[in-house]
Design a protein that fits this description.
Layout: H1 17-23, H2 35-55, H3 58-79
Length: 80
């Protein structure tokens, strides 16, 4: 039996990341946060995103935002 590597990410996920991981043959374990845990997790995610923006090249920030916005709108239009 092959040894599986366990990776723990204690952070919010979006854009169906667990489904993508599962589709690649890996297993995931997720939990839905309750109201008490959600706000601190959202604040931590906001800080993480802000740090990425501050440390990135301006062009990269703009391109990333456009890609995320375009793909999110496209997915919504495809799923109804």
């Amino acid at each position: 039996m092959p040894h599986e590597q366990k990776i723990v990410y204690s952070k919010l996920v979006r854009d169906r990341i667990p489904e993508i991981i599962t589709a690649n043959g890996q297993t995931t374990r997720v939990r839905v946060l309750d109201d008490q845990d959600l706000l601190p997790a959202l604040i931590a995610k906001l800080h993480e995103e802000a740090e990425e923006v501050v440390s990135a090249e301006p062009r990269t920030v703009i391109v990333t935002w456009i890609e995320r916005t375009y793909h999110r709108r496209r997915r919504r239009s495809l799923t109804g």
